[in-house]
Amino acid sequence: MTPPAPLEPLMNAVEELRALDRPAKLLGAVARRGFGSGAFKDAISGTWLGNSVHAPLTDAVIGPLLSASLLDVLSPESPRAAQRLIEAGLAIAVPTALAGLNDWADSEATDSGVRRGVAVNQTAHDRGPVDWTAVAPAAAPAGERPLRVLAGDTPVLLVRDGDSIHAIHDRCSHRGCSLASGRVDGHVVSCRCHGSRFDLRDGTVIAGPAGYAQPVFEVRGPADRLEVRLRRPT
Q: The pTM is what?
C-alpha cells in the first residue's frame, strides 16, 4: 500500500471542517452571480473548447515563471528576459484564477442527485443503452412538459414535439443536474442549475457553461410501451 503524502492528513482535516461550509457556500453563490451567464461565462468555462480551460491555463502560468527561474540561474546576465517572463506569468494568472473560481463555484451540489465533479463529462461513463430498452415509467410525455424516465440505469429526458418525441440524456453533461427540472422552449432545454442550453434534436450545446453535448436516443413504440436506444452515428 502506498503511504499517504506527508500533508494528506492535514488536507483531509481541513476538508472535513464544517465551519468552512457556510463561507464556502456564500463565496460560491457570489461567484455564480458575478459570472452570470453569457459569453464571458462560456469563455472561462471552456464551452468553446469542449473542455475546462483552467487546467491548460495553469501550465501557461507555470511555464513562464519556471523559465524565469531557470534564466536567473543559468543566465543571470539576462534580467530583462526573466522580468518579461514573470510579467507574462502574472498576467496569465488572472484569467487562470477566474477560471478556477468559476469551476469550483459550479462544483457545489445544487441538486440532491448531482454528481459532483469539475471539467468532467457527467455522461461519459453512462452513455445509455445501445439496444432497444423499455423505459420506466412506461408513459409518453404530454405536451412540451419534460418527462424523466429510466432506461435501465440511465436517466432519459423525453419531450413531445407534435407526433414525435425527442429523447436525450437527462443528466446534464456539465455538473449532472436533471434536465427534466429545467425549462423547455421549442427545441431547446435549459438546465436550471447553471443555465446550459441543449438542442433536443441532436443534443448539441447551444449555450454554456457546458462543453459536452448530450447523448441522444432513438424512440419507438406506442405511448404505453416506449423503448429507447442510443442514436447510432450516421
A: 0.61
